[in-house]
DNA sequence: TCCAGTGTGTCAGAATCCTGACATGAGTCA
DNA sequence: TGACTCATGTCAGGATTCTGACACACTGGA
């Protein structure tokens, strides 16, 4: 078998993907009864914490392209969960904001997602969680540096 | 702002998604010059470590549906990287195996991906990595238990 | 023996997301 | 002022993935 390759059982990268997939599946399970998708929820949650974000900024925060966020925002606006000015006040960016209805929908979804996260962290004490946060931030930072150094 | 919602800066779930997205982007960057996609690579790596896996098993290991893995396997077989018997020896499962050419392709890709993982873990010592592995395994386990208890 | 349950391969259609491209507005610098 | 770069919104097309469905094969219990 020529011991090269990456051992899946001890690969941080594989575990990372596995955990992310499991989290996404669990979120889909609790969001489906609410008629929401994960990207749906991510967009609303971002807007709640940082009102006035533009479509491109929301896309970066939700890890999708701005084209995908564009169609999502159109749907959210059509359904009355989000409002955007008809014309940009400055530049081209259209700052989006939650409507009262959007906030209501988000509150239900947010509670469900928080439940998922709590259950995900069961079995880990506060020190473990703090350490996990530091490790994840370190990984993100290292990957970003590496990517930037390849000028792209 | 009514302090509900999930603080994105301190949410393990958000960081998890961010790290996973960054890892995937970095892998795409190094695999693109080799003419491979991440799912492509995942399938080959899985087969190298566990020869004879069926399409459904590969799908679970690569976190896609078995329908998606089905079309991927057709392409890999057409390109001569993977072989499968024309008829199942037992049951319906068709055990897949890497060809010599597939193994060659994988070796190059595997080295590139290992480089990404090494750079991702830069700044973390052995103890940190071991701790991160335990945390990730704990999260996966908790999420799976929760999902199983809802019988689906 | 029969039969329900589970796992697998496969086909067809739909939904989702991305790549490519274009035009516009703002900032920078010579 | 004008050229250049960068970020944004938007449209069109294509690629990828998923959902739904069907048929078949093994297993275990009634």
TrEMBL record, chains A, B:
One of its GO terms (molecular function) is DNA-binding transcription factor activity. Pfam families: MarR_2. The keyword Transcription regulation does not apply. GO terms for biological process: response to stress. SUPFAM superfamilies: Winged helix' DNA-binding domain (SSF46785). PROSITE patterns: HTH_MARR_2. The keyword DNA-binding applies. It comes from the Bacteria. Residues 9-141 form the HTH marR-type domain. InterPro entries: HTH_MarR-typ (IPR000835), MarR/SlyA-like (IPR039422), WH-like_DNA-bd_sf (IPR036388), WH_DNA-bd_sf (IPR036390). Keywords: DNA-binding. This is DNA-binding MarR family transcriptional regulator.
């Amino acid at each position: 078998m020529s011991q090269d390759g990456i051992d899946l059982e001890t690969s941080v990268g594989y575990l990372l993907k596995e955990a992310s997939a499991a989290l996404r599946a669990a979120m889909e399970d609790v969001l489906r009864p609410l008629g929401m998708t994960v990207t749906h929820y991510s967009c609303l949650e971002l807007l709640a914490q940082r009102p006035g974000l533009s479509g491109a900024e929301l896309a970066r925060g939700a890890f999708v392209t701005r084209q995908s966020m564009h169609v999502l925002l159109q749907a959210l606006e059509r359904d009355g969960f989000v409002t955007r000015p008809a014309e940009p006040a400055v530049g081209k960016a259209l700052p989006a904001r939650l409507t009262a209805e959007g906030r209501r929908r988000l509150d239900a979804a947010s509670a469900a997602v928080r439940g998922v996260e709590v259950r995900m962290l069961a079995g880990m004490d506060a020190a473990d969680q703090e350490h996990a946060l530091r490790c994840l931030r370190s990984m993100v930072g290292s990957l970003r540096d590496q990517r930037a150094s390849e000028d792209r």
